[in-house]
Amino acid sequence: MHFLDFEKPIAELEGKIEELRHLTDDSEVNIQEEVQKLQAKAERLLRQTYARLTPWQKTQVARHPERPHFGDYISRLVDDFQPLAGDRSYGEDPAIQGGLARFRGFSSVWIGQEKGHDTATRVRHNFGMARPEGYRKAQRLMRLAERFQVPIFTLVDTPGAYPGVGAEERGQAEAIARSIETCLEVKVPLISVIIGEGGSGGAIALASANSVYMLEHSVYSVISPEGCASILWRSGEHTKDAAEQLKLTAQDLHKLQVIDRVIEEPLGGAQRDKAATIDAVGDVLEDELHRLRAFTGGALKRKRRDKYLEIGRVGLS
Amino acid sequence: MSWISNYVRPKIRALVTRQDIPDDLWEKCPDCGQMIFHRELEKALRVCTHCGYHLRIGPNERMRLLFDSGQFTPIELPETIQDPLKFRDRKRYSDRLREARAKAEATDAIMVAHGRMGGHPVVMACFDFSFMGGSMGIAVGEGLLAAARLACMQEAPLLVVPASGGARMQEGILSLMQMPRTTVAVDMVKEKGLPYVVLLTDPTTGGVSASFAMLGDLTLAEPGSVIGFAGQRVIEATVREQLPEGFQRAEYLRDHGMVDQVVDRRELRDRLITLFGLLTRTTPEARIVRIPEGSLKLDGPRVAGGGPRIDDGRPTAEPQPADTGEAQQQPAEKRSSWSLSLTGRSRDKASGDKTPDKPKAEKAKPETAKSDRPKDTQKGDKQADSAGETGGHAHAASADPHQAGGDDETPATDPDRRAAE
Ligand SMILES: [Zn+2]
């Protein structure tokens, strides 16, 4: 288990519990009791900590290396996943994964950034930072979904689009713009979940959807707290302030009516119970799919546009 | 209609006054460092007379330079929520806004106006880089939406001139949301079959480049403009190598297939007029043929028959030989209620050239009277509302052969019209 800096007290307690457990063979009765007491204490601490996460702490949870990623969702939520590769004009970008799958009976297209889970896969997926090919593949898959009238699910988890020379040369800006446009055009249900980090243009490129959900401890922002601090405060020391000011938590975004709903995470964050997190997301997606299926393609497109036109009338007081 | 009475309160601003600059002022070119006499610089539209560097210009100056006779009508932009996040960095956002407004040409980083270019009605939205780096927040998004709605109502092309570092961070996620919102805006224009042209100026980066700015039917750029998604320092820090020569400049983007043309500011107006003409007057100018007495039955059904052609699914930007083939069809086409700006001409023809056919001329009149003058108001609303549904080929306006009013700079392709006037 990887602990975040603010989880140190919890880590210590859990370490102690682990030690005591190894001692139980020495048959002292109160060890059992002691373990239970410590466990209750650890849980209380975990509950307290996670009920009061600051925006910066949430950012850290959202980036937790053991948080479930796109691949975890796919292997648990869908059957017959068929990954589809390439943008048909330049290349294949492993930062964005996508394909056809059966989700609770429904054929569907799944698209999302994959961050990877160890050094090799992180490098392979470029830490979830896509290049133009990735966004163009996403557009291709969205059009495929539209052609066969199957719903689209996008799982967003990216620090942002990749800032590289080649990416710029091949039209990173255009690829993102066109991806947003495609999201807004397709005449099938499009449902998005921010499962970890919703990093700026790289996120909205996949998340201009009919319904947008966020996991409880995910974040979604126009710029990373680090980037914002360095531009507006001209100092990396103000990252926490930037996280605070940007209002990037699921709870604030719900108040701003930018997202439709916050999906609860297990106690201590998604990383503590991947299966429960993924199932909770699956249930929300299934319900919403049933709701959206009642609308015609034209209505879905119109509703999606209207939804975005409405955003921005509400502020935080 | 309600939208127009609410938001489009036109304040005629003819020939906006130039700042008073003392006669002996020289300016230094930020690129080559040479001194340029300010009058020379103004005459060259603020393009360095030594090296061709394009100095930044504000929205007023840009519009004065592009619209016919420098005349245009700015529209008042919708009021939007101020400082929605109560954002504070080293300074309060509300204070930054107040300071920016005190110095600015408009209430936020965008100015929207309508006017004519070479006679074509055009709606223009220009960014003001001097207003918080031209950054895009809710107000800018609303400005682009207003511009798009106005273009749809007037059936006019939309020209957008970004000059922006990207999203306005102080509005957090709500600034990010302007990316889909402005995409909806320009798609409304495109779905109505109206040209959406982007002129990228220095700089166009971040969330602005990654939304409406890269979605133009045509994309022009001013020489030397920095255009791209990520900032150069960020890229350098990521790739840890020197960036290529000319990286993210207009010419570089053109060479990499992202921009149609890089156009010198001094040629810009003519170039845009030509392009708008090519996109809106897609068939040869109508030739007026005398129609034998009594052979013309052009009333209700004929006109109604003109409408559905629009839905026949063929790419309407193509020339339509049928239009020119039979003289009798011309008036019906021209009278179709799909182009506001067209009707002025059809009236000219109907009343001026077809005098023998009196009933027809009279018939044409009530219709044109209804839809001609108050260009902003008539059926624009209706069509704007349904724009979302038509999904693609409603190239109604562009199917019509002409949209020009009467300007001397209109290419003299239509002597008949001149005669009629
Ligand atoms: Zn110079």
Automatic annotation (TrEMBL), chain A:
Keywords: ATP-binding, Coiled coil, Cytoplasm, Fatty acid biosynthesis, Fatty acid metabolism, Lipid biosynthesis, Lipid metabolism, Nucleotide-binding, Transferase
PROSITE patterns for this protein: COA_CT_CTER
Name by which UniProt lists this protein: Acetyl-coenzyme A carboxylase carboxyl transferase subunit alpha
Gene3D superfamilies per the UniProt record, alphabetical: 2-enoyl-CoA Hydratase, Chain A, domain 1
Gene name of the record: accA
EC numbers for this chain: 2.1.3.15
Biological role: Component of the acetyl coenzyme A carboxylase (ACC) complex. First, biotin carboxylase catalyzes the carboxylation of biotin on its carrier protein (BCCP) and then the CO(2) group is transferred by the carboxyltransferase to acetyl-CoA to form malonyl-CoA.
Top enzyme category: transferase
UniProtKB/TrEMBL annotation, chain B:
Compositional bias per record (Polar residues), positions renumbered to this chain: 326-344
Annotated CoA carboxyltransferase N-terminal domain residues: 25-294
First and last residues of each zinc finger (C4-type): 29-51
One Pfam family cited in the UniProt record for this chain: Carboxyl_trans
EC number: 2.1.3.15
Keyword Lyase among UniProt keywords: no
Main localization (coarse): cytoplasm
UniProt-annotated stretches for the region Disordered: 296-421
Cofactor annotation: Zn(2+)
Biased amino acid composition, Basic and acidic residues: 345-384
Cofactor: how and how many bound: Binds 1 zinc ion per subunit.
EC class (word): transferase
Keyword field: ATP-binding, Cytoplasm, Fatty acid biosynthesis, Fatty acid metabolism, Lipid biosynthesis, Lipid metabolism, Metal-binding, Nucleotide-binding, Transferase, Zinc, Zinc-finger
Subcellular location: Cytoplasm
Record field: catalytic activity: N(6)-carboxybiotinyl-L-lysyl-[protein] + acetyl-CoA = N(6)-biotinyl-L-lysyl-[protein] + malonyl-CoA
Binding site for Zn(2+): C29, C32, C48, C51
UniProt pathway: Lipid metabolism; malonyl-CoA biosynthesis; malonyl-CoA from acetyl-CoA: step 1/1
Family: Belongs to the AccD/PCCB family.
Entries under HAMAP family matching the protein: AcetylCoA_CT_beta
Function: Component of the acetyl coenzyme A carboxylase (ACC) complex. Biotin carboxylase (BC) catalyzes the carboxylation of biotin on its carrier protein (BCCP) and then the CO(2) group is transferred by the transcarboxylase to acetyl-CoA to form malonyl-CoA.
Record note on quaternary structure: Acetyl-CoA carboxylase is a heterohexamer composed of biotin carboxyl carrier protein (AccB), biotin carboxylase (AccC) and two subunits each of ACCase subunit alpha (AccA) and ACCase subunit beta (AccD).
Name listed for the protein in its UniProt record: Acetyl-coenzyme A carboxylase carboxyl transferase subunit beta
Organism: Rhodovibrio sodomensis
The organism's taxonomic lineage, starting at the top: Bacteria, Pseudomonadati, Pseudomonadota, Alphaproteobacteria, Rhodospirillales
